[in-house]
Amino acid sequence: MSRTKQKAPKGGGKDPQDIIRREKSELVAGDLTQKKVATTMGGKKRKLDQSDDPKTYPLPKRAALDTESEQSTSPDVAVDPSLLADHFAKNIQKWFSTSSPIELEDMYLPKKAFLDTTSYTKERLAANLPDFLEQFSAGGKEGLSNCEEVGSPHTIVLAMSGMRIADLMRELRVFKSQGSKVGKFMPKHMKLEMNIKFLQSNRVGIAIGTPERLNQLLEAGALKTQGLQRIVVDGSHHDEKRSTIFTIGQIFRPMVAFLNDDNIRQRYGAEQNKVDIIVF
């Protein structure tokens, strides 16, 4: 039988079943009204439903999305380096499913690449990223606010979208100083030529960008890595669709390529000029 609503019979007749259902609804409504009056007058139970509680009022749509997008996915990121290496490996297998075992092995990131951040107890939200970086950077805020060479950041933050980059940029501006800028780098919103020129003419201590754009800047020679100390993967953030940097192949694949750049990979776990992957 079709699930579409049937038309009312012609001639003004009423369906008996509709009348019965209507009467039942009226009886239930009347009963609820009586219960509400009784409990209110009795003074023992005022609330009939949660709508009387101001704490349960629904958030506006935009506010609700912002709250959801800021929730931490702790099981994915707040774990030790061994589990993080395994987490990356599983996603590499997923998003590079046509690669051979040897090719996959070359892409896997070693345990020594990851810095252990399990001691961080605060929520991994954008507002806490500056505090997070200060805790896991040897030079603290002062070190994060300085940069020695043009186009050679000490910190690179990999994020999944332009909107997220803008959010992180607002928080990380606390590390902007006269001698060190915080730069954002992303396709669609900014021309590659503009990003190249910016890197070639400024000392950028912290670079925030999508993996795709940062790979392009590496290939163009504008982004230098000799001063790089840490790569922050924005792993806890998820958007309104519950997507993360791990669950979108077109973002995860270029991220793996960036993390496996020859000039970066050889410095994981090194005694000198070390580079750490820090999953936020």
UniProtKB/TrEMBL annotation:
InterPro entries: Cms1 (IPR032704), P-loop_NTPase (IPR027417). Residues 12-26 have a biased composition (Basic and acidic residues). Pfam families: CMS1. GO terms for cellular component: 90S preribosome; nucleus. Residues 1-77 are annotated as: Disordered. PANTHER family: PROTEIN CMSS1. This is Protein CMS1. It comes from Fonsecaea nubica. The lineage of its organism: Eukaryota, Fungi, Dikarya, Ascomycota, Pezizomycotina.
